[in-house]
Amino acid sequence: MNSKVLEEIQEVVDFLDKKIPFRPEVAIILGSGLGGFASSLKEQFSIPYQEIPHFHSPSVEGHEGKILFGKVDGIKVAALQGRWHYYEGHSMDSVVLPTRALASLGVHTLFLTNAAGGINLKFQAGDLVIIEDHLNLMGDNPLTGKDSPLFGPRFPDMSEPYSHECIQILETAAQKLKIPYKKGVYGGLRGPTYETPAEVKMLRTLGCDMVGMSTVPESIAAKHLGMRVMGISCITNMAAGIEKKTLDHKEVQETANSIIQVLTTWMLEVIPKLTKESPLSFPSTNPLKR
Ligand code: HPA
Predict the structure, then answer these.
(1) Which one from 56, 85, 134, 224 is the annotated catalytic residue?
(2) Which ligand 1 atom lies nearest to the CA of residue 239?
(3) What was the pLDDT predicted at 289?
(4) CA of residue 231 relative to chain centroid, distance
(5) How far apart are CA 53 and CA 213, in angstroms?
C-alpha cells in the first residue's frame, strides 16, 4: 500500500468521524438490489457517497450510493447501500477503501452481501446462501504492492475467510426463523461480462457453488486488518448455460428485490448476536490517527 492510499483512508476516517453520531461496530455491504435492508435501521443517519472524499457513486443500477449509520437492538451498524466494483475501472485499493476506513472507525465484523449466479445445480433463483469460502479468480488482490505491516501481515492467513462463529450464528438464526438457506463457495470473477456456459462448467469443476463480481476484495482486505468476515449470496439467477435463457441485470435486480424482506428478517435476527467476543489485532495496530 503506498502512502497516498493511507492518506486517503485517513481523510475518509477524519471526514466520517466529524459527521457520524457514533462509531459503528458492525458494517454491512449491501449488494445489487439489496439496499432495502437499510430502511430497517433505527436512529438512521445517512451520508451520500458523493459527499465523502474518495468515495465513488456506483455506476450500476441497484446500487444507491449512500452510507447509513443506525442501530439494530442497540448494536451500532454502518450499512453501505451499494459498492463500486473492480470492473468499473477502480483500483483494488479504491474498491476496499470503505472496508479499511470502517475498520479504522472500530468495526470488528464485516457482513458482506451480494447478488450471485447459481453454479451448484441444487440451487435455484431466490436462494439465500451462506458464504463458507471463496475462490479469488479476479486476477488481482487488494494486498498487491508495498507491504503495510501496520495494517496487517505480508502473508495473511486465509484459512478461515468467513468466520465459523458467524456462520453458526447465521445458521441458528435461520433455523429459528424457519428461513431456508444453503451454504456454498463463492467464485469472485472480474466481470463485467457474465460467464460463458463453458466457464460455468469450469467453475463447477473448481468447486464454486455461486459466482459474482464482488465480495472477494473486501473479504481479503478485512481479514488483513483482523476483522471478522461473514457473507450471504442471493442467487438472483442460475449461471449461464444452465437454463435456456439469456442473463441480464434487470433479472438480477428483480430477484434480489423479491428476496430482500426475508434477507432483512434474517439479518435483523443475526446482527444483535455479532458482539465482539475476542480481542482483535486491530485497531491496536491501527496506523491511522484517531
Ligand atoms: N454471474 C456473475 N455475477 C452475477 C451473476 C452471474 O450469473 N448474477 C448476479 N451477479
Answers:
(1) 85
(2) 7
(3) 47
(4) 7
(5) 24
Which of these is catalytic: 91, 249, 251, 257? Answer: 249
- What is the per-residue pLDDT across 158-201, written as a single tens digit (0 to 9) for each? 999 999 999 999 999 999 999 999 999 999 999 999 999 999 99
Residue 284 annotated to the active site: no
Give the whole-angstrom CA distance, residue 190 versus residue 212. 8
> What secondary structure letter does DSSP report for 102?
H
Count, residues in the chain: 290
H/E element holding 136?
Answer: strand 128-137
Question: Which of 131, 200, 213, 249 for a ligand 1 pocket mutation test, highest count of atoms within 8 Å of Cβ?
Answer: 213
- 3-state SS, residue 138: coil
Alpha helices in 183-280, H assignment, sequence order: 197-206, 216-224, 249-270
| Site residues for ligand 1, CB cut-off 6 Å | 115-117, 194-195, 211-213, 236-237, 239, 247, 252
**In this structure, what C-alpha cell is assigned to residue 134?**
471463496
- Percent of the chain having pLDDT more than 70? 94
Pick the CATH number of 3-273 from 3.40.50.150, 3.10.180.10, 3.40.50.1580, 3.30.420.40: 3.40.50.1580
- Residue 240 Cα to ligand 1 midpoint, Å, equals 9
Confirm if 130 and 182 have CB atoms less than 8 A apart: yes
Q: What is the pTM of this model?
A: 0.94
Alpha-carbon distance 36 to 115, whole Å? 13
CA distance 181 to 68: 27
